[in-house]
Design brief:
The structure holds two protein chains of two kinds. Chain A is mostly helical. Chain A contains eleven helices and no strands. The chains are: A mainly alpha, B mainly alpha.
Protein backbone atom coordinates (compact mmCIF):
# COMPACT_ATOMS: atom_id res chain seq x y z
CA UNK A 1 0.00 0.00 0.00
CA UNK A 2 2.89 2.33 0.85
CA UNK A 3 4.46 1.53 -2.52
CA UNK A 4 1.29 2.51 -4.35
CA UNK A 5 1.14 5.74 -2.37
CA UNK A 6 4.79 6.59 -3.10
CA UNK A 7 4.20 5.89 -6.77
CA UNK A 8 1.02 7.99 -6.92
CA UNK A 9 2.49 10.92 -4.99
CA UNK A 10 5.66 10.78 -7.11
CA UNK A 11 3.64 10.79 -10.31
CA UNK A 12 1.53 13.72 -9.17
CA UNK A 13 4.56 15.67 -7.98
CA UNK A 14 6.53 15.17 -11.19
CA UNK A 15 3.60 15.99 -13.46
CA UNK A 16 3.14 19.26 -11.56
CA UNK A 17 6.86 20.01 -11.59
CA UNK A 18 7.24 19.32 -15.31
CA UNK A 19 4.16 21.39 -16.10
CA UNK A 20 5.96 24.36 -14.56
CA UNK A 21 9.04 23.84 -16.73
CA UNK A 22 8.79 26.09 -19.77
CA UNK A 23 11.94 24.44 -21.11
CA UNK A 24 10.42 20.97 -20.93
CA UNK A 25 7.06 22.01 -22.34
CA UNK A 26 8.62 23.92 -25.22
CA UNK A 27 10.91 21.05 -26.11
CA UNK A 28 8.21 18.42 -25.89
CA UNK A 29 5.56 20.39 -27.76
CA UNK A 30 7.39 22.49 -30.32
CA UNK A 31 9.48 19.85 -32.10
CA UNK A 32 6.59 17.38 -32.61
CA UNK A 33 4.51 20.26 -33.99
CA UNK A 34 7.21 21.06 -36.52
CA UNK A 35 7.66 17.43 -37.56
CA UNK A 36 3.87 17.14 -37.89
CA UNK A 37 3.87 20.28 -40.04
CA UNK A 38 6.50 18.85 -42.37
CA UNK A 39 4.57 15.58 -42.62
CA UNK A 40 1.29 17.43 -43.34
CA UNK A 41 2.91 19.39 -46.15
CA UNK A 42 4.52 16.26 -47.58
CA UNK A 43 1.29 14.26 -47.63
CA UNK A 44 -0.64 17.25 -48.95
CA UNK A 45 1.94 17.80 -51.72
CA UNK A 46 1.52 14.14 -52.66
CA UNK A 47 -2.24 14.73 -53.07
CA UNK A 48 -3.09 12.32 -50.31
CA UNK A 49 -5.39 14.38 -48.10
CA UNK A 50 -7.12 11.22 -46.88
CA UNK A 51 -3.91 10.32 -45.03
CA UNK A 52 -3.82 13.53 -43.01
CA UNK A 53 -5.77 12.29 -39.97
CA UNK A 54 -3.66 9.11 -40.07
CA UNK A 55 -0.53 11.29 -39.98
CA UNK A 56 -2.00 13.63 -37.39
CA UNK A 57 -2.62 10.75 -34.95
CA UNK A 58 0.88 9.41 -35.58
CA UNK A 59 2.42 12.82 -35.01
CA UNK A 60 0.40 13.14 -31.81
CA UNK A 61 1.86 9.88 -30.47
CA UNK A 62 5.29 11.09 -31.57
CA UNK A 63 4.70 14.04 -29.24
CA UNK A 64 4.28 11.63 -26.33
CA UNK A 65 7.36 9.70 -27.43
CA UNK A 66 9.46 12.84 -27.76
CA UNK A 67 8.44 14.03 -24.33
CA UNK A 68 9.12 10.60 -22.81
CA UNK A 69 12.50 10.22 -24.46
CA UNK A 70 13.67 13.65 -23.46
CA UNK A 71 12.33 13.22 -19.94
CA UNK A 72 13.64 9.72 -19.34
CA UNK A 73 17.02 10.77 -20.68
CA UNK A 74 17.09 13.57 -18.19
CA UNK A 75 15.43 11.74 -15.29
CA UNK A 76 18.67 10.57 -13.69
CA UNK A 77 20.80 13.42 -14.96
CA UNK A 78 18.54 16.08 -13.45
CA UNK A 79 18.76 14.36 -10.05
CA UNK A 80 22.55 14.35 -10.43
CA UNK A 81 22.65 18.06 -11.22
CA UNK A 82 20.37 18.86 -8.30
CA UNK A 83 22.48 16.73 -5.98
CA UNK A 84 19.50 14.58 -4.99
CA UNK A 85 20.47 11.32 -6.69
CA UNK A 86 22.52 9.94 -3.80
CA UNK A 87 19.81 10.86 -1.29
CA UNK A 88 17.16 9.10 -3.36
CA UNK A 89 19.29 6.01 -3.86
CA UNK A 90 20.19 5.76 -0.18
CA UNK A 91 16.57 6.21 0.98
CA UNK A 92 14.82 3.03 2.21
CA UNK A 93 12.14 3.46 -0.47
CA UNK A 94 12.89 1.19 -3.44
CA UNK A 95 14.52 3.30 -6.14
CA UNK A 96 12.16 1.88 -8.75
CA UNK A 97 9.26 3.64 -6.99
CA UNK A 98 11.14 6.92 -7.29
CA UNK A 99 12.21 6.78 -10.93
CA UNK A 100 9.25 5.01 -12.57
CA UNK A 101 6.78 7.81 -11.63
CA UNK A 102 9.19 10.36 -13.06
CA UNK A 103 9.46 8.67 -16.44
CA UNK A 104 5.73 8.04 -16.49
CA UNK A 105 5.14 11.71 -15.69
CA UNK A 106 7.18 12.71 -18.74
CA UNK A 107 4.88 10.70 -20.97
CA UNK A 108 1.80 12.08 -19.19
CA UNK A 109 3.09 15.54 -20.12
CA UNK A 110 3.01 14.24 -23.69
CA UNK A 111 -0.76 14.80 -23.44
CA UNK A 112 -0.05 18.49 -24.08
CA UNK A 113 1.84 17.55 -27.18
CA UNK A 114 -0.88 15.15 -28.32
CA UNK A 115 -3.57 17.78 -27.87
CA UNK A 116 -1.56 20.59 -29.46
CA UNK A 117 -0.69 18.45 -32.49
CA UNK A 118 -4.31 17.51 -33.10
CA UNK A 119 -5.48 21.11 -32.59
CA UNK A 120 -2.69 22.40 -34.85
CA UNK A 121 -3.74 19.94 -37.55
CA UNK A 122 -7.34 21.07 -37.22
CA UNK A 123 -6.67 24.82 -37.19
CA UNK A 124 -3.77 25.13 -39.62
CA UNK A 125 -4.52 22.31 -42.04
CA UNK A 126 -8.25 21.76 -41.60
CA UNK A 127 -7.79 18.12 -40.64
CA UNK A 128 -11.09 16.94 -39.15
CA UNK A 129 -10.74 15.10 -35.86
CA UNK A 130 -13.25 12.30 -35.81
CA UNK A 131 -13.26 9.27 -33.54
CA UNK A 132 -15.09 6.09 -34.52
CA UNK A 133 -14.89 4.35 -31.11
CA UNK A 134 -14.74 6.91 -28.30
CA UNK A 135 -14.61 4.34 -25.50
CA UNK A 136 -11.65 2.57 -27.08
CA UNK A 137 -9.96 5.90 -27.82
CA UNK A 138 -10.29 7.03 -24.21
CA UNK A 139 -8.65 3.78 -23.08
CA UNK A 140 -6.06 3.65 -25.87
CA UNK A 141 -4.53 7.04 -25.05
CA UNK A 142 -3.66 6.30 -21.39
CA UNK A 143 -2.58 2.77 -22.35
CA UNK A 144 -0.17 4.28 -24.86
CA UNK A 145 1.09 6.77 -22.30
CA UNK A 146 1.67 3.91 -19.86
CA UNK A 147 3.51 1.82 -22.46
CA UNK A 148 5.74 4.69 -23.54
CA UNK A 149 6.38 5.90 -20.00
CA UNK A 150 7.55 2.44 -18.93
CA UNK A 151 9.73 2.13 -22.03
CA UNK A 152 11.29 5.40 -20.88
CA UNK A 153 11.82 3.77 -17.49
CA UNK A 154 13.97 1.06 -19.12
CA UNK A 155 16.13 3.75 -20.73
CA UNK A 156 16.35 5.75 -17.51
CA UNK A 157 17.47 2.70 -15.54
CA UNK A 158 20.59 2.35 -17.69
CA UNK A 159 21.41 6.02 -17.22
CA UNK A 160 22.25 5.44 -13.55
CA UNK A 161 25.52 3.94 -14.69
CA UNK A 162 26.44 6.15 -17.63
CA UNK A 163 26.72 9.83 -16.85
CA UNK A 164 26.04 11.13 -20.36
CA UNK A 165 23.67 8.48 -21.55
CA UNK A 166 20.91 11.07 -21.86
CA UNK A 167 22.71 12.32 -24.96
CA UNK A 168 22.39 8.83 -26.38
CA UNK A 169 18.67 8.92 -25.75
CA UNK A 170 18.37 11.89 -28.12
CA UNK A 171 19.76 9.63 -30.81
CA UNK A 172 16.78 7.27 -30.45
CA UNK A 173 14.21 9.86 -31.47
CA UNK A 174 14.30 9.39 -35.26
CA UNK A 175 14.92 5.60 -35.29
CA UNK A 176 11.91 4.83 -33.08
CA UNK A 177 9.77 7.33 -34.98
CA UNK A 178 10.68 5.49 -38.16
CA UNK A 179 10.36 1.83 -37.17
CA UNK A 180 7.18 2.13 -35.11
CA UNK A 181 5.13 3.38 -38.03
CA UNK A 182 4.04 6.64 -36.44
CA UNK A 183 4.39 8.54 -39.70
CA UNK A 184 5.05 5.78 -42.22
CA UNK A 185 2.96 2.64 -42.71
CA UNK A 186 4.91 -0.37 -41.44
CA UNK A 187 4.25 -2.20 -44.70
CA UNK A 188 6.54 0.26 -46.51
CA UNK A 189 9.51 -0.34 -44.20
CA UNK A 190 12.20 -2.94 -44.86
CA UNK A 191 11.74 -6.40 -43.35
CA UNK A 192 14.30 -5.91 -40.57
CA UNK A 193 12.17 -3.15 -39.07
CA UNK A 194 9.22 -5.49 -38.34
CA UNK A 195 10.61 -7.52 -35.41
CA UNK A 196 12.01 -4.36 -33.81
CA UNK A 197 8.67 -2.62 -34.18
CA UNK A 198 6.81 -5.49 -32.50
CA UNK A 199 8.93 -5.10 -29.35
CA UNK A 200 8.20 -1.40 -29.03
CA UNK A 201 5.06 -0.17 -27.28
CA UNK A 202 4.72 2.94 -29.51
CA UNK A 203 4.01 0.62 -32.47
CA UNK A 204 0.99 -0.91 -30.75
CA UNK A 205 -0.04 2.31 -29.05
CA UNK A 206 -0.28 4.28 -32.26
CA UNK A 207 -2.09 1.37 -33.90
CA UNK A 208 -4.58 1.26 -31.03
CA UNK A 209 -5.25 5.00 -31.24
CA UNK A 210 -5.62 4.87 -35.02
CA UNK A 211 -7.93 1.87 -34.94
CA UNK A 212 -10.04 3.60 -32.31
CA UNK A 213 -10.21 6.87 -34.23
CA UNK A 214 -10.45 5.62 -37.79
CA UNK A 215 -12.48 2.49 -37.09
CA UNK A 216 -11.18 -1.02 -36.57
CA UNK A 217 -10.31 -3.36 -33.73
CA UNK A 218 -8.24 -1.38 -31.24
CA UNK A 219 -8.59 -3.66 -28.20
CA UNK A 220 -5.91 -6.24 -29.10
CA UNK A 221 -3.45 -3.39 -29.71
CA UNK A 222 -4.39 -1.82 -26.37
CA UNK A 223 -3.73 -5.17 -24.69
CA UNK A 224 -0.32 -5.60 -26.29
CA UNK A 225 0.65 -2.01 -25.38
CA UNK A 226 -0.17 -2.59 -21.71
CA UNK A 227 1.49 -6.02 -21.68
CA UNK A 228 4.67 -4.57 -23.16
CA UNK A 229 4.54 -1.78 -20.59
CA UNK A 230 4.45 -4.32 -17.76
CA UNK A 231 7.32 -6.22 -19.35
CA UNK A 232 9.31 -2.97 -19.53
CA UNK A 233 8.60 -2.37 -15.84
CA UNK A 234 10.04 -5.77 -14.95
CA UNK A 235 13.07 -5.31 -17.21
CA UNK A 236 13.63 -1.77 -15.94
CA UNK A 237 13.41 -2.86 -12.30
CA UNK A 238 16.03 -5.57 -12.82
CA UNK A 239 18.30 -3.21 -14.77
CA UNK A 240 17.89 -0.48 -12.19
CA UNK A 241 18.85 -2.79 -9.33
CA UNK A 242 21.87 -4.07 -11.26
CA UNK A 243 23.08 -0.64 -12.42
CA UNK A 244 22.46 0.94 -9.03
CA UNK A 245 24.64 -1.71 -7.40
CA UNK A 246 27.35 -1.19 -10.04
CA UNK A 247 27.23 2.59 -9.56
CA UNK A 248 27.64 2.14 -5.79
CA UNK A 249 30.51 -0.28 -6.33
CA UNK A 250 32.37 2.03 -8.73
CA UNK A 251 31.43 5.24 -6.86
CA UNK A 252 30.07 6.83 -10.03
CA UNK A 253 26.64 7.79 -8.75
CA UNK A 254 27.26 11.49 -8.35
CA UNK A 255 29.75 11.99 -11.16
CA UNK A 256 28.49 14.69 -13.46
CA UNK B 1 50.56 37.21 -34.90
CA UNK B 2 48.82 36.88 -31.54
CA UNK B 3 45.49 37.38 -33.31
CA UNK B 4 46.24 34.53 -35.71
CA UNK B 5 47.23 32.35 -32.77
CA UNK B 6 44.09 33.33 -30.90
CA UNK B 7 42.00 32.57 -33.97
CA UNK B 8 43.34 29.07 -34.55
CA UNK B 9 44.53 27.85 -31.15
CA UNK B 10 41.77 29.55 -29.19
CA UNK B 11 39.14 28.20 -31.57
CA UNK B 12 40.53 24.68 -31.39
CA UNK B 13 40.77 24.73 -27.60
CA UNK B 14 37.23 26.00 -27.32
CA UNK B 15 35.97 23.23 -29.58
CA UNK B 16 37.91 20.61 -27.64
CA UNK B 17 36.32 21.95 -24.47
CA UNK B 18 32.95 20.79 -25.79
CA UNK B 19 34.19 17.25 -25.21
CA UNK B 20 34.70 18.12 -21.57
CA UNK B 21 31.00 17.71 -20.97
CA UNK B 22 30.28 15.12 -23.63
CA UNK B 23 32.54 12.19 -24.33
CA UNK B 24 33.50 11.65 -27.99
CA UNK B 25 32.22 8.10 -27.55
CA UNK B 26 28.75 9.57 -27.19
CA UNK B 27 29.06 12.71 -29.29
CA UNK B 28 30.39 11.02 -32.42
CA UNK B 29 27.59 8.41 -32.69
CA UNK B 30 25.16 11.29 -32.25
CA UNK B 31 26.67 12.93 -35.31
CA UNK B 32 26.81 9.70 -37.27
CA UNK B 33 23.67 7.72 -36.48
CA UNK B 34 21.02 10.40 -35.97
CA UNK B 35 21.39 12.04 -39.42
CA UNK B 36 21.20 8.66 -41.15
CA UNK B 37 17.90 7.91 -39.45
CA UNK B 38 16.62 11.40 -40.16
CA UNK B 39 17.32 10.76 -43.83
CA UNK B 40 15.68 7.33 -43.76
CA UNK B 41 12.63 8.69 -41.92
CA UNK B 42 11.93 11.41 -44.47
CA UNK B 43 12.77 9.17 -47.42
CA UNK B 44 10.11 6.72 -46.23
CA UNK B 45 7.58 9.46 -45.48
CA UNK B 46 8.28 10.77 -48.98
CA UNK B 47 7.66 7.32 -50.44
CA UNK B 48 4.41 7.01 -48.48
CA UNK B 49 3.30 10.50 -49.51
CA UNK B 50 4.43 9.90 -53.12
CA UNK B 51 5.92 13.35 -53.48
CA UNK B 52 9.62 13.71 -54.28
CA UNK B 53 12.46 11.36 -55.19
CA UNK B 54 14.70 9.71 -52.60
CA UNK B 55 17.53 11.95 -53.77
CA UNK B 56 15.50 15.02 -52.80
CA UNK B 57 15.29 13.87 -49.17
CA UNK B 58 18.84 12.54 -48.93
CA UNK B 59 20.31 15.87 -50.02
CA UNK B 60 17.83 17.98 -48.06
CA UNK B 61 18.30 16.16 -44.77
CA UNK B 62 22.05 15.57 -45.06
CA UNK B 63 22.65 19.27 -45.50
CA UNK B 64 20.00 20.23 -42.97
CA UNK B 65 21.73 18.10 -40.36
CA UNK B 66 24.73 20.42 -40.57
CA UNK B 67 22.57 22.67 -38.41
CA UNK B 68 23.02 20.36 -35.41
CA UNK B 69 26.80 20.57 -35.09
CA UNK B 70 26.95 24.15 -36.34
CA UNK B 71 24.14 25.81 -34.41
CA UNK B 72 24.41 23.75 -31.21
CA UNK B 73 28.22 23.79 -31.03
CA UNK B 74 28.53 27.45 -31.92
CA UNK B 75 25.96 28.36 -29.29
CA UNK B 76 27.66 26.21 -26.68
CA UNK B 77 31.20 27.40 -27.40
CA UNK B 78 30.18 30.93 -26.46
CA UNK B 79 27.06 30.80 -24.30
CA UNK B 80 28.45 27.71 -22.54
CA UNK B 81 31.19 29.90 -21.07
CA UNK B 82 28.64 31.21 -18.62
CA UNK B 83 27.88 27.74 -17.27
CA UNK B 84 31.57 27.13 -16.76
CA UNK B 85 31.96 30.50 -15.04
CA UNK B 86 34.62 31.51 -17.56
CA UNK B 87 32.60 34.13 -19.45
CA UNK B 88 33.73 37.02 -17.26
CA UNK B 89 37.36 35.98 -17.59
CA UNK B 90 37.05 35.70 -21.38
CA UNK B 91 35.44 39.11 -21.73
CA UNK B 92 37.86 40.72 -19.30
CA UNK B 93 40.83 39.86 -21.52
CA UNK B 94 42.22 42.49 -23.86
CA UNK B 95 42.12 39.96 -26.73
CA UNK B 96 40.71 41.20 -30.00
CA UNK B 97 37.14 40.12 -30.29
CA UNK B 98 37.01 39.12 -33.96
CA UNK B 99 39.67 36.38 -33.69
CA UNK B 100 38.32 35.45 -30.27
CA UNK B 101 34.76 34.78 -31.41
CA UNK B 102 35.18 34.03 -35.10
CA UNK B 103 38.10 31.69 -34.37
CA UNK B 104 35.70 29.51 -32.46
CA UNK B 105 33.61 29.06 -35.58
CA UNK B 106 36.33 27.46 -37.72
CA UNK B 107 36.39 23.99 -36.09
CA UNK B 108 32.60 24.12 -35.95
CA UNK B 109 32.39 24.68 -39.71
CA UNK B 110 34.84 21.85 -40.40
CA UNK B 111 32.90 19.51 -38.11
CA UNK B 112 29.57 20.52 -39.67
CA UNK B 113 31.02 19.81 -43.10
CA UNK B 114 32.11 16.30 -42.15
CA UNK B 115 28.81 15.48 -40.45
CA UNK B 116 26.74 16.59 -43.45
CA UNK B 117 29.12 14.97 -45.97
CA UNK B 118 29.05 11.68 -44.07
CA UNK B 119 25.26 11.76 -43.91
CA UNK B 120 25.08 12.48 -47.63
CA UNK B 121 27.44 9.65 -48.62
CA UNK B 122 26.14 6.97 -46.24
CA UNK B 123 22.48 8.00 -46.46
CA UNK B 124 22.71 8.09 -50.24
CA UNK B 125 24.35 4.67 -50.34
CA UNK B 126 21.74 3.13 -48.04
CA UNK B 127 18.84 4.49 -50.04
CA UNK B 128 20.55 3.83 -53.35
CA UNK B 129 20.74 7.20 -55.06
CA UNK B 130 23.29 7.88 -57.77
CA UNK B 131 25.05 11.18 -58.18
CA UNK B 132 27.33 11.94 -61.15
CA UNK B 133 31.00 11.74 -60.12
CA UNK B 134 31.71 15.15 -61.66
CA UNK B 135 29.11 16.70 -59.32
CA UNK B 136 30.84 15.51 -56.15
CA UNK B 137 33.47 18.29 -55.78
CA UNK B 138 30.79 20.92 -56.36
CA UNK B 139 28.47 19.34 -53.80
CA UNK B 140 31.36 19.17 -51.32
CA UNK B 141 31.91 22.90 -51.75
CA UNK B 142 28.18 23.55 -51.34
CA UNK B 143 28.19 21.54 -48.09
CA UNK B 144 31.14 23.57 -46.83
CA UNK B 145 29.43 26.89 -47.62
CA UNK B 146 26.22 25.62 -46.04
CA UNK B 147 28.10 24.67 -42.88
CA UNK B 148 29.57 28.18 -42.87
CA UNK B 149 26.09 29.72 -43.22
CA UNK B 150 24.68 27.56 -40.40
CA UNK B 151 27.59 28.57 -38.19
CA UNK B 152 26.80 32.21 -38.92
CA UNK B 153 23.30 31.57 -37.62
CA UNK B 154 24.85 29.72 -34.67
CA UNK B 155 26.80 32.87 -33.79
CA UNK B 156 23.50 34.73 -33.60
CA UNK B 157 21.90 32.08 -31.38
CA UNK B 158 25.05 32.22 -29.24
CA UNK B 159 24.45 35.95 -28.84
CA UNK B 160 20.84 35.34 -27.83
CA UNK B 161 22.23 32.73 -25.44
CA UNK B 162 23.93 35.55 -23.57
CA UNK B 163 20.47 36.88 -22.81
CA UNK B 164 18.44 33.70 -22.42
CA UNK B 165 19.32 30.78 -20.19
CA UNK B 166 17.95 27.85 -22.20
CA UNK B 167 20.30 27.70 -25.14
CA UNK B 168 19.39 24.04 -25.78
CA UNK B 169 15.73 24.98 -26.27
CA UNK B 170 16.75 27.86 -28.48
CA UNK B 171 18.96 25.64 -30.65
CA UNK B 172 16.19 23.03 -30.89
CA UNK B 173 13.74 25.68 -32.05
CA UNK B 174 16.20 26.93 -34.67
CA UNK B 175 16.81 23.37 -35.86
CA UNK B 176 13.06 22.78 -36.17
CA UNK B 177 12.49 26.00 -38.06
CA UNK B 178 15.23 25.08 -40.52
CA UNK B 179 13.63 21.64 -40.94
CA UNK B 180 10.32 23.18 -41.99
CA UNK B 181 11.25 26.35 -43.85
CA UNK B 182 14.35 25.62 -45.90
CA UNK B 183 12.94 23.16 -48.40
CA UNK B 184 14.81 20.24 -46.87
CA UNK B 185 11.70 18.07 -47.03
CA UNK B 186 9.01 20.17 -48.65
CA UNK B 187 9.69 21.93 -51.93
CA UNK B 188 9.48 25.70 -51.49
CA UNK B 189 6.71 25.76 -54.12
CA UNK B 190 4.58 23.57 -51.85
CA UNK B 191 4.97 25.91 -48.88
CA UNK B 192 2.82 29.02 -48.36
CA UNK B 193 4.28 32.14 -49.95
CA UNK B 194 5.31 33.78 -46.68
CA UNK B 195 7.24 30.69 -45.66
CA UNK B 196 9.18 30.39 -48.90
CA UNK B 197 9.91 34.13 -48.77
CA UNK B 198 11.20 33.85 -45.22
CA UNK B 199 13.30 30.86 -46.27
CA UNK B 200 15.33 33.07 -48.59
CA UNK B 201 16.93 34.68 -45.55
CA UNK B 202 17.74 31.41 -43.81
CA UNK B 203 20.86 29.29 -44.14
CA UNK B 204 20.45 25.98 -46.01
CA UNK B 205 17.73 27.13 -48.44
CA UNK B 206 20.08 28.12 -51.26
CA UNK B 207 22.67 25.48 -50.41
CA UNK B 208 20.15 22.64 -50.56
CA UNK B 209 18.80 23.92 -53.86
CA UNK B 210 22.32 24.19 -55.30
CA UNK B 211 23.25 20.66 -54.20
CA UNK B 212 20.06 19.24 -55.72
CA UNK B 213 20.73 20.95 -59.03
CA UNK B 214 24.32 19.71 -59.10
CA UNK B 215 23.14 16.17 -58.35
CA UNK B 216 20.70 16.48 -61.25
CA UNK B 217 23.59 17.28 -63.59
CA UNK B 218 23.67 21.09 -63.58
CA UNK B 219 27.05 22.73 -64.11
CA UNK B 220 28.85 24.32 -61.19
CA UNK B 221 28.72 27.71 -62.89
CA UNK B 222 24.93 27.57 -63.05
CA UNK B 223 24.63 27.28 -59.26
CA UNK B 224 27.18 30.01 -58.56
CA UNK B 225 24.41 32.48 -57.71
CA UNK B 226 22.83 30.09 -55.21
CA UNK B 227 26.21 29.43 -53.62
CA UNK B 228 26.91 33.15 -53.33
CA UNK B 229 23.45 33.71 -51.81
CA UNK B 230 24.09 30.96 -49.24
CA UNK B 231 27.45 32.50 -48.33
CA UNK B 232 25.89 35.95 -48.08
CA UNK B 233 23.12 34.69 -45.81
CA UNK B 234 25.75 33.09 -43.55
CA UNK B 235 27.84 36.24 -43.54
CA UNK B 236 24.88 38.42 -42.61
CA UNK B 237 23.83 36.10 -39.77
CA UNK B 238 27.44 35.95 -38.59
CA UNK B 239 27.70 39.74 -38.58
CA UNK B 240 24.38 40.05 -36.75
CA UNK B 241 25.66 37.55 -34.17
CA UNK B 242 29.04 39.23 -33.74
CA UNK B 243 27.52 42.72 -33.46
CA UNK B 244 24.97 41.50 -30.94
CA UNK B 245 27.63 39.79 -28.86
CA UNK B 246 29.67 43.01 -28.77
CA UNK B 247 26.61 45.07 -27.87
CA UNK B 248 25.65 42.65 -25.10
CA UNK B 249 29.21 42.65 -23.84
CA UNK B 250 29.09 46.43 -23.49
CA UNK B 251 25.67 46.28 -21.84
CA UNK B 252 26.81 43.63 -19.41
CA UNK B 253 29.73 45.80 -18.32
CA UNK B 254 27.44 48.78 -17.75
CA UNK B 255 24.64 46.93 -15.97
CA UNK B 256 26.65 44.04 -14.49
CA UNK B 257 24.32 41.50 -16.07
CA UNK B 258 26.86 39.10 -17.50
CA UNK B 259 26.16 36.22 -15.13
CA UNK B 260 22.52 37.01 -14.55
CA UNK B 261 20.64 35.42 -17.42
Amino acid sequence: MTGVRVFAVGLRFHVKALTHSVFFLLTSIFMPLLVATVAYYMYRAGNQPGSLLYVSLGAAVYGIWSSTLFGSGGAIQWQRWQGTLEVLVSAPTPFVLVIAPLTLATSVIGIYSLASTLVWGRLAFGIPFTVAHWAAFVVAVPATILGLGLLGFVFASTFVLYRNANALSNMLEWPVLLVTGMLVPLSLLPGWAGPIAWLLAPTWGVQAIREAALGGTPWPDVGVTVALGLAYLAIGAVCLRHFEAAARRHATLSLT
Amino acid sequence: MSSVRLFFVGGLLSFRALFGWLSPWILIPTYVIAPIFQILLFVYIGRAAKTQSDEFYVIGNALQYAAIPCVFAMTNTIAGERYQNTLSAVLATPAKRIPLFVGRSLPVIVNGFFVAAFAFVVGGALVGISVPAEAVPGIALVILVTAFACTGLGLTTAAVGLLARDTATLSNIVFGILLVFTGANVALDDLPGWMSTLAQGLPLTHGIEAARRLADGASFASVGGLLAAEALVGLVWGMVGYTTIRALERQSRIHATLERA
